[in-house]
Amino acid sequence: MSLREQLRKLLPDILPADPKDAIKGTELIQLVKYRLKQDYSDATLRYHFSIMSCDPSAPIAKVEHGQGYYLRTNTLSSMASARHMLTANQATFGGDFGYDSNQALFRANKFRAIASRVYREANRFPFVLNETFGEDAEYRDLWKFPDMVIVDWEVGVPDESGLRFDRDMMSLKRSFGSQPFTLRSVKMKLDANLETVREDFYQCLSNSRWAHFGEFVIANEIADERLLEELRSLGSEFGIGITSLGLSAEAIDDLPEPGMIESFGDREMEAIQKRLTLHRIAPPRPRRELDWTQIRRLRGDNPEIEKMFHWITYSLDNAKAESYASYAAKAAVGTLPVSSNEDAFRHAERVVSKINPKN
Protein backbone atom coordinates (compact mmCIF):
# COMPACT_ATOMS: atom_id res chain seq x y z
CA MET A 1 0.00 0.00 0.00
CA SER A 2 1.38 3.41 -0.97
CA LEU A 3 2.08 6.11 1.59
CA ARG A 4 -0.76 8.20 0.18
CA GLU A 5 -3.25 5.36 0.66
CA GLN A 6 -1.98 4.71 4.18
CA LEU A 7 -2.41 8.36 5.09
CA ARG A 8 -5.95 8.43 3.71
CA LYS A 9 -6.85 5.66 6.16
CA LEU A 10 -4.89 6.96 9.16
CA LEU A 11 -5.56 10.69 9.12
CA PRO A 12 -9.34 10.64 9.84
CA ASP A 13 -8.57 8.99 13.19
CA ILE A 14 -5.85 11.51 14.06
CA LEU A 15 -6.92 14.92 12.81
CA PRO A 16 -9.34 17.14 14.76
CA ALA A 17 -12.58 18.13 13.02
CA ASP A 18 -12.47 21.72 14.30
CA PRO A 19 -9.91 23.97 12.55
CA LYS A 20 -9.43 25.81 15.86
CA ASP A 21 -7.84 22.62 17.23
CA ALA A 22 -5.56 22.10 14.23
CA ILE A 23 -2.40 20.00 14.75
CA LYS A 24 0.92 21.51 13.70
CA GLY A 25 2.92 19.64 11.09
CA THR A 26 5.71 18.58 13.46
CA GLU A 27 3.27 17.02 15.91
CA LEU A 28 1.27 15.36 13.13
CA ILE A 29 4.43 13.79 11.73
CA GLN A 30 5.14 12.11 15.06
CA LEU A 31 1.57 10.88 15.45
CA VAL A 32 1.58 9.43 11.94
CA LYS A 33 5.03 7.84 12.21
CA TYR A 34 3.86 5.87 15.22
CA ARG A 35 1.16 4.17 13.12
CA LEU A 36 2.91 3.69 9.80
CA LYS A 37 4.24 0.26 8.89
CA GLN A 38 7.34 1.67 7.18
CA ASP A 39 9.88 4.28 8.17
CA TYR A 40 9.47 7.56 6.27
CA SER A 41 11.48 10.74 6.68
CA ASP A 42 9.95 13.89 8.17
CA ALA A 43 10.45 15.68 4.85
CA THR A 44 8.54 12.98 2.95
CA LEU A 45 5.60 13.12 5.33
CA ARG A 46 5.56 16.92 5.36
CA TYR A 47 5.53 16.90 1.55
CA HIS A 48 2.57 14.50 1.43
CA PHE A 49 0.62 16.55 4.00
CA SER A 50 1.12 19.65 1.88
CA ILE A 51 0.11 17.98 -1.40
CA MET A 52 -2.89 16.17 0.07
CA SER A 53 -4.20 19.30 1.77
CA CYS A 54 -4.70 20.81 -1.70
CA ASP A 55 -6.72 17.80 -2.87
CA PRO A 56 -10.49 18.17 -2.22
CA SER A 57 -10.83 14.38 -2.03
CA ALA A 58 -8.20 14.01 0.72
CA PRO A 59 -9.12 13.92 4.43
CA ILE A 60 -6.53 16.54 5.42
CA ALA A 61 -6.95 20.31 5.17
CA LYS A 62 -4.57 23.14 6.07
CA VAL A 63 -5.59 26.14 8.16
CA GLU A 64 -5.93 29.24 6.02
CA HIS A 65 -3.51 32.04 6.97
CA GLY A 66 -2.13 30.00 9.84
CA GLN A 67 -0.39 26.81 10.86
CA GLY A 68 -1.71 23.33 11.37
CA TYR A 69 -3.89 20.66 9.80
CA TYR A 70 -7.41 19.45 10.53
CA LEU A 71 -9.89 16.89 9.20
CA ARG A 72 -11.57 17.81 5.94
CA THR A 73 -15.14 16.76 6.53
CA ASN A 74 -16.29 17.86 3.07
CA THR A 75 -14.44 15.52 0.74
CA LEU A 76 -15.62 15.09 -2.85
CA SER A 77 -17.55 11.96 -1.96
CA SER A 78 -19.41 13.66 0.88
CA MET A 79 -19.93 16.78 -1.22
CA ALA A 80 -21.88 14.83 -3.85
CA SER A 81 -25.09 15.83 -2.07
CA ALA A 82 -24.70 19.28 -3.68
CA ARG A 83 -24.28 18.07 -7.26
CA HIS A 84 -27.87 18.97 -8.15
CA MET A 85 -27.01 22.61 -7.43
CA LEU A 86 -25.04 22.61 -10.69
CA THR A 87 -26.72 23.22 -14.03
CA ALA A 88 -26.48 20.39 -16.57
CA ASN A 89 -23.46 21.84 -18.35
CA GLN A 90 -21.65 22.53 -15.05
CA ALA A 91 -22.14 18.95 -13.94
CA THR A 92 -20.35 17.83 -17.09
CA PHE A 93 -17.85 20.55 -17.86
CA GLY A 94 -18.12 23.15 -15.11
CA GLY A 95 -20.06 25.54 -17.38
CA ASP A 96 -19.41 29.25 -16.93
CA PHE A 97 -17.88 28.49 -13.56
CA GLY A 98 -14.92 26.57 -15.00
CA TYR A 99 -14.11 23.39 -16.89
CA ASP A 100 -13.56 20.94 -14.06
CA SER A 101 -16.78 19.41 -12.68
CA ASN A 102 -15.13 18.61 -9.34
CA GLN A 103 -14.18 22.25 -8.98
CA ALA A 104 -17.78 23.24 -9.69
CA LEU A 105 -18.96 20.74 -7.06
CA PHE A 106 -16.52 22.23 -4.56
CA ARG A 107 -17.92 25.69 -5.32
CA ALA A 108 -21.49 24.46 -4.79
CA ASN A 109 -20.59 23.21 -1.32
CA LYS A 110 -18.89 26.48 -0.45
CA PHE A 111 -21.99 28.31 -1.66
CA ARG A 112 -24.19 26.16 0.57
CA ALA A 113 -21.94 26.83 3.57
CA ILE A 114 -21.95 30.59 2.86
CA ALA A 115 -25.75 30.71 2.57
CA SER A 116 -26.11 28.76 5.81
CA ARG A 117 -23.81 31.18 7.63
CA VAL A 118 -25.57 34.25 6.20
CA TYR A 119 -28.87 32.98 7.59
CA ARG A 120 -27.30 32.21 10.96
CA GLU A 121 -25.73 35.66 11.16
CA ALA A 122 -29.26 37.09 10.88
CA ASN A 123 -30.43 35.02 13.91
CA ARG A 124 -32.18 32.54 11.66
CA PHE A 125 -31.79 28.78 11.93
CA PRO A 126 -30.94 26.74 8.81
CA PHE A 127 -31.41 23.00 8.52
CA VAL A 128 -29.42 21.58 5.59
CA LEU A 129 -30.69 18.38 3.96
CA ASN A 130 -27.35 16.66 3.38
CA GLU A 131 -28.43 13.02 3.24
CA THR A 132 -31.45 13.55 0.99
CA PHE A 133 -29.42 14.13 -2.16
CA GLY A 134 -26.79 11.44 -1.69
CA GLU A 135 -25.79 8.72 -4.13
CA ASP A 136 -29.19 7.00 -3.91
CA ALA A 137 -31.22 10.15 -4.64
CA GLU A 138 -33.65 10.07 -7.56
CA TYR A 139 -34.63 12.80 -9.99
CA ARG A 140 -38.09 13.06 -8.45
CA ASP A 141 -36.49 14.01 -5.11
CA LEU A 142 -35.61 17.40 -6.62
CA TRP A 143 -39.34 18.07 -6.92
CA LYS A 144 -40.16 16.85 -3.40
CA PHE A 145 -37.43 18.14 -1.09
CA PRO A 146 -35.65 21.50 -0.66
CA ASP A 147 -31.91 21.92 -0.12
CA MET A 148 -32.40 23.78 3.12
CA VAL A 149 -35.17 24.74 5.53
CA ILE A 150 -34.93 27.99 7.48
CA VAL A 151 -36.66 28.15 10.87
CA ASP A 152 -37.53 31.69 11.88
CA TRP A 153 -38.57 31.91 15.52
CA GLU A 154 -41.14 34.68 15.75
CA VAL A 155 -40.90 34.72 19.55
CA GLY A 156 -37.11 34.82 19.87
CA VAL A 157 -35.19 37.44 21.81
CA PRO A 158 -31.39 37.52 21.32
CA ASP A 159 -29.28 37.21 24.46
CA GLU A 160 -25.71 36.17 25.33
CA SER A 161 -26.49 32.46 25.14
CA GLY A 162 -28.39 32.52 21.86
CA LEU A 163 -32.06 33.11 21.18
CA ARG A 164 -34.43 32.64 24.10
CA PHE A 165 -38.19 32.59 23.70
CA ASP A 166 -40.33 35.35 25.12
CA ARG A 167 -43.17 33.45 26.77
CA ASP A 168 -45.32 36.59 26.99
CA MET A 169 -44.90 37.05 23.25
CA MET A 170 -45.86 33.41 22.69
CA SER A 171 -49.06 33.96 24.66
CA LEU A 172 -49.78 37.17 22.80
CA LYS A 173 -49.31 35.48 19.44
CA ARG A 174 -51.54 32.65 20.56
CA SER A 175 -54.30 35.12 21.42
CA PHE A 176 -54.09 36.60 17.91
CA GLY A 177 -54.02 33.21 16.19
CA SER A 178 -50.35 33.45 15.20
CA GLN A 179 -47.64 30.79 15.46
CA PRO A 180 -44.22 30.80 17.15
CA PHE A 181 -42.18 29.89 14.07
CA THR A 182 -42.25 29.98 10.30
CA LEU A 183 -40.61 27.50 7.94
CA ARG A 184 -38.95 28.65 4.74
CA SER A 185 -38.17 26.07 2.01
CA VAL A 186 -35.00 26.97 0.08
CA LYS A 187 -33.79 25.67 -3.29
CA MET A 188 -30.22 26.57 -4.26
CA LYS A 189 -28.39 26.82 -7.59
CA LEU A 190 -24.81 27.79 -8.29
CA ASP A 191 -25.90 29.46 -11.53
CA ALA A 192 -29.03 30.04 -13.59
CA ASN A 193 -29.60 30.24 -17.33
CA LEU A 194 -32.52 30.60 -19.73
CA GLU A 195 -32.35 26.95 -20.83
CA THR A 196 -33.02 25.48 -17.38
CA VAL A 197 -34.48 28.33 -15.30
CA ARG A 198 -38.10 27.21 -15.65
CA GLU A 199 -37.33 23.67 -14.54
CA ASP A 200 -35.28 25.00 -11.61
CA PHE A 201 -38.03 27.42 -10.63
CA TYR A 202 -40.87 24.90 -10.83
CA GLN A 203 -38.86 22.44 -8.75
CA CYS A 204 -38.59 25.18 -6.13
CA LEU A 205 -42.32 25.84 -6.35
CA SER A 206 -43.09 22.12 -6.08
CA ASN A 207 -40.82 21.33 -3.14
CA SER A 208 -41.94 24.37 -1.12
CA ARG A 209 -45.73 23.97 -1.28
CA TRP A 210 -45.88 22.72 2.30
CA ALA A 211 -43.96 25.66 3.86
CA HIS A 212 -44.84 29.21 4.86
CA PHE A 213 -42.38 30.56 2.26
CA GLY A 214 -40.58 29.32 -0.84
CA GLU A 215 -37.15 30.73 -1.72
CA PHE A 216 -34.88 30.26 -4.73
CA VAL A 217 -31.28 31.33 -3.99
CA ILE A 218 -28.67 31.64 -6.76
CA ALA A 219 -24.95 32.03 -6.06
CA ASN A 220 -23.71 34.17 -8.92
CA GLU A 221 -24.84 37.54 -10.22
CA ILE A 222 -27.58 37.52 -12.87
CA ALA A 223 -26.42 39.86 -15.64
CA ASP A 224 -28.72 38.66 -18.45
CA GLU A 225 -31.73 41.02 -18.54
CA ARG A 226 -33.95 38.41 -20.19
CA LEU A 227 -33.15 35.95 -17.43
CA LEU A 228 -33.78 38.58 -14.76
CA GLU A 229 -37.16 39.42 -16.26
CA GLU A 230 -38.08 35.73 -16.46
CA LEU A 231 -37.19 35.25 -12.80
CA ARG A 232 -39.08 38.38 -11.73
CA SER A 233 -42.15 37.31 -13.66
CA LEU A 234 -42.16 33.76 -12.27
CA GLY A 235 -41.46 34.91 -8.72
CA SER A 236 -44.21 37.52 -8.81
CA GLU A 237 -46.77 35.16 -10.30
CA PHE A 238 -46.23 32.29 -7.85
CA GLY A 239 -45.01 34.14 -4.73
CA ILE A 240 -41.54 32.56 -4.65
CA GLY A 241 -38.73 34.71 -3.28
CA ILE A 242 -35.68 34.86 -5.55
CA THR A 243 -32.27 36.13 -4.45
CA SER A 244 -28.82 36.31 -6.02
CA LEU A 245 -25.79 36.48 -3.72
CA GLY A 246 -23.66 38.06 -6.45
CA LEU A 247 -20.73 35.69 -5.95
CA SER A 248 -18.36 35.19 -8.88
CA ALA A 249 -16.48 31.95 -9.47
CA GLU A 250 -13.25 33.71 -8.50
CA ALA A 251 -14.74 34.97 -5.22
CA ILE A 252 -15.87 31.46 -4.28
CA ASP A 253 -12.51 29.94 -5.24
CA ASP A 254 -10.74 32.40 -2.94
CA LEU A 255 -12.62 31.03 0.06
CA PRO A 256 -11.46 28.05 2.16
CA GLU A 257 -13.22 24.71 2.26
CA PRO A 258 -16.85 24.52 3.44
CA GLY A 259 -15.98 23.15 6.88
CA MET A 260 -13.92 26.23 7.67
CA ILE A 261 -16.64 28.59 6.45
CA GLU A 262 -19.06 26.91 8.86
CA SER A 263 -16.68 27.63 11.77
CA PHE A 264 -15.77 31.21 10.83
CA GLY A 265 -15.75 33.82 13.57
CA ASP A 266 -17.16 37.34 13.39
CA ARG A 267 -14.14 38.85 11.64
CA GLU A 268 -14.05 36.21 8.90
CA MET A 269 -17.80 36.45 8.37
CA GLU A 270 -17.55 40.22 8.05
CA ALA A 271 -15.02 39.69 5.24
CA ILE A 272 -17.40 37.26 3.48
CA GLN A 273 -20.32 39.66 3.83
CA LYS A 274 -18.27 42.28 1.97
CA ARG A 275 -17.91 39.88 -0.97
CA LEU A 276 -21.66 39.46 -1.32
CA THR A 277 -23.84 41.63 -3.51
CA LEU A 278 -27.32 40.59 -2.46
CA HIS A 279 -29.98 41.22 -5.09
CA ARG A 280 -33.59 40.50 -4.20
CA ILE A 281 -35.07 39.71 -7.61
CA ALA A 282 -38.54 38.83 -6.29
CA PRO A 283 -39.98 38.97 -2.76
CA PRO A 284 -41.66 35.86 -1.29
CA ARG A 285 -45.39 35.79 -0.65
CA PRO A 286 -46.24 34.04 2.64
CA ARG A 287 -48.77 31.30 3.12
CA ARG A 288 -50.71 31.67 6.35
CA GLU A 289 -50.54 28.01 7.35
CA LEU A 290 -48.25 25.03 7.04
CA ASP A 291 -49.64 22.19 4.96
CA TRP A 292 -49.42 19.44 7.56
CA THR A 293 -50.85 16.83 5.19
CA GLN A 294 -47.94 17.33 2.80
CA ILE A 295 -45.47 17.48 5.68
CA ARG A 296 -46.71 14.10 6.91
CA ARG A 297 -45.95 12.62 3.50
CA LEU A 298 -42.50 14.20 3.42
CA ARG A 299 -41.82 12.91 6.90
CA GLY A 300 -42.74 9.39 5.85
CA ASP A 301 -40.46 9.57 2.81
CA ASN A 302 -37.47 11.32 4.37
CA PRO A 303 -35.84 10.68 7.78
CA GLU A 304 -34.16 14.09 7.64
CA ILE A 305 -37.54 15.81 7.93
CA GLU A 306 -38.09 13.78 11.11
CA LYS A 307 -34.72 15.00 12.45
CA MET A 308 -35.73 18.57 11.74
CA PHE A 309 -38.90 18.26 13.78
CA HIS A 310 -37.03 16.66 16.68
CA TRP A 311 -34.80 19.73 16.65
CA ILE A 312 -37.80 22.09 16.53
CA THR A 313 -39.48 20.19 19.38
CA TYR A 314 -36.30 20.41 21.46
CA SER A 315 -36.36 24.19 21.02
CA LEU A 316 -40.05 24.38 21.95
CA ASP A 317 -39.50 22.27 25.07
CA ASN A 318 -36.57 24.41 26.22
CA ALA A 319 -37.99 27.79 25.17
CA LYS A 320 -34.70 28.52 23.45
CA ALA A 321 -33.34 28.18 19.92
CA GLU A 322 -29.89 26.90 19.03
CA SER A 323 -28.22 25.81 15.82
CA TYR A 324 -28.91 22.35 14.47
CA ALA A 325 -25.17 21.59 14.65
CA SER A 326 -25.20 22.29 18.39
CA TYR A 327 -28.33 20.18 18.87
CA ALA A 328 -26.90 17.29 16.79
CA ALA A 329 -23.62 17.35 18.75
CA LYS A 330 -25.56 16.94 22.01
CA ALA A 331 -27.68 14.18 20.51
CA ALA A 332 -24.56 12.34 19.31
CA VAL A 333 -23.07 12.13 22.81
CA GLY A 334 -26.40 11.54 24.55
CA THR A 335 -26.56 14.78 26.54
CA LEU A 336 -29.99 15.93 25.37
CA PRO A 337 -32.68 15.95 28.07
CA VAL A 338 -35.35 13.30 27.69
CA SER A 339 -38.36 14.83 25.97
CA SER A 340 -41.85 14.19 27.29
CA ASN A 341 -43.04 14.29 23.68
CA GLU A 342 -42.43 10.94 22.03
CA ASP A 343 -43.53 12.10 18.59
CA ALA A 344 -41.67 15.30 17.73
CA PHE A 345 -43.69 15.90 14.59
CA ARG A 346 -47.06 15.66 16.34
CA HIS A 347 -45.84 17.87 19.16
CA ALA A 348 -44.82 20.64 16.75
CA GLU A 349 -48.13 20.24 14.92
CA ARG A 350 -50.05 20.45 18.21
CA VAL A 351 -48.30 23.66 19.21
CA VAL A 352 -49.23 25.34 15.94
CA SER A 353 -52.74 23.86 15.96
CA LYS A 354 -53.45 25.26 19.45
CA ILE A 355 -52.46 28.66 18.20
CA ASN A 356 -54.25 28.35 14.89
CA PRO A 357 -57.39 26.21 15.33
CA LYS A 358 -58.10 26.16 11.59
CA ASN A 359 -55.01 24.00 10.97
Description of the molecule:
The protein has 359 residues and is of the alpha+beta class. It has 2 domains: 3-71, Arc Repressor Mutant, subunit A (Orthogonal Bundle); 78-282, no CATH class. It is 46% helix and 14% strand. The chain contains 16 helices and 11 strands. The protein has helices at 3-14, 25-33, 42-52, 88-93, 101-121, 141-144, 167-175, 197-207, 225-238, 249-253, 258-262, 266-275, 292-301, 303-318, 324-333, 344-355, and strands at 60-62, 69-71, 125-128, 148-153, 156-159, 162-165, 181-189, 213-218, 241-244, 279-282, 320-321. It has a 6-stranded mixed β-sheet with strand order 3-4-7-8-9-10, sandwiched between helices. It has a 3-stranded antiparallel β-sheet with strand order 5-6-11. Strands 1-2 form a two-stranded antiparallel sheet. A hairpin with a 2-residue loop joins β5 and β6. α8 (197-207) packs parallel to α9 (225-238), α13 (292-301) packs across α14 (303-318) and α14 (303-318) packs across α16. The protein is globular, with a radius of gyration of 22 Å.
Keywords:
single chain, 359 residues, alpha+beta, Arc Repressor Mutant, subunit A, 2 domains, six-stranded mixed β-sheet, three-stranded antiparallel β-sheet, 11 strands, 46% helix, globular
